[in-house]
Design a protein that fits this description.
The protein is about 40% helix and about 15% strand.
Length: about 650
Amino acid sequence: MDQGFIRAAAATPKIRVADPEYNAAQVQKLMEEAAGRGAKIAVFPELCLTGYTCGDLFLQSLLTDRAKEALERLVQNTAELDLLAFIGLPWEYNGKLYNAAAAVCGGRLLGLVTKTFLPNYSEFYEARHFTPGPATCVKAPWQGGQVPMGSHLLFACDTVPGLVLAAELCEDVWAPCPPSISHALAGAVVVVNCSASDETVGKDAYRRQLIAGQSARLVCGYVYANAGEGESTQDLVFGGHNLIAENGTLLAEARRCADGILCADLDLDRLAAERRRMNTFASGNGKETESYTTVSFSLKREPLDLERFIDPMPFVPHDQEARSQRCEEILSIQSLGLKKRLEHTGTSHAVVGISGGLDSTLALLVTARAFDMLGLPKSQIRAVTMPCFGTTDRTYQNACKMAVCLGASLQEVDIRESVLRHFADIGHDPECRDVTYENSQARERTQVLMDIANQTGGLVIGTGDMSELALGWATYNGDHMSMYGVNASVPKTLVRHLVRWCADTCGQEELRQVLLDVLDTPVSPELLPPEEGKIAQKTEDLVGPYELHDFFLYYLLRFGFRPARVYRLACQAFRDRYDRETIQKWLKTFYRRFFSQQFKRSCLPDGPKVGSVAVSPRGDLRMPSDACGRLWMEEAEHLEEQEGTER
């Protein structure tokens, strides 16, 4: 367990049917291997100590007695392993035979989880040999004492906060109302499944969807261990198709017909954050927990070198097909939002300030798409370029070409003289290139756009994106303000891909070339004079790389993670791009700006939400403008100390 991460293993031993002693030795080897790989949870297949395919041999007491003896040896051997294992075996109680999973840890048998739903159709005949588990927990005899037995068992780790497990067996998860539903509602965060699911054509795809879907529905980690080689092939083949999923995401999948261990790192903090956020997920309430017996166990908390992939671009799908679908969907949401606003206001004109940069380019593309939806002529889009002290020929030409290619009406308003006149009015030296020098330009541009909108009876379309809003990288009542902000919930890392997708699908070569050049242009507000004709003011040199800030923003707002954890994840995700000192530097910048700039987000114009993270004060981020950020800044200043403490 390390900062909320814990490694789980799904293990498939190569067994011999009806040979518990041999099978226990194979289980022991895999338990030792799992522990050696840093796993704290190991899940084995259903009835693996005997084999699932024993048939009527299950009615032989010699087999079941030897299975129990094999379990006794395994329990003793776990005294030396820092591991919680779930092992399948037949178990006799009060003259009936049960299909059970033994939970074993630290030299103790913690409990016996019984199977609820016994399949007795097609190739399955379990009701011939087994009895469904008791509805409430009973006490089964064990080595002169008793252990809890039943389906309603929770296993809570007293040394690892948030680690609560429950188990179900194979068919249980295929049933209409799986036991794992009540397990999760009673507080289980990790569900394990000891399974023996045979292979038929196409069944692996269904199994994959089933396990991933169940983990999403229950907001849990799900570890599925399936039977494999060694089971009888008289009528069936078992492929050892092991799966580990977390909240709908498949973390790891075993190649079929390959026995051994599958490992993945579960993120308990992420699951806890998601359940906390979803007020419809009513876990841990009295009614659900009344029928459960909770058994405590202990594990050591040790550093873990993560094997889990941490996506450096959480807002951007890596798969090209998925990314294309995401781009189409987001552009549709943006355009539909603007379409509704134009319809509601009875407005058939729009005004967009274009700079030749990424954000204004996306806003103009969205506006053109909305006009197409409404059947309005795009000539009624007023694309306004407003050159001033920092405008370069490259961005100016791109802005003009883009407007022409899209069929918008191009209007140029040079604001140099009006800004200089403003400087004279307020007594500001034009050679003093401070925040007043920069913000005066942004506010003059906004005034021009608003006045042109009044002239045409149109709406000013906002261009600022979510990353800029998170950092407060916008002039208050300047580019911060509009009549509808179509980019308000689109992060900068995604803006680039949206523009790229438009370039690839526009079907107009001249427009494509312009968009590609926009993509190749450094991100800049262009408020300071160019140096030798080139952009002198590069945003990412000033506030830091947007890919880092988008990463920080995602984990801050989506999961509520503290700075030390965001830092740990960033170091893992960007380990080949940034050193730890650089990540810490920009993380401190992020928190400082995020807290100090909330006042700008508190009065944002309307705009459509497109993803799971947004900063609208009316929806996703209801944060006081004067909230104190001291706690976050202090932790960001002492990350190495905090990381050591958490471990």
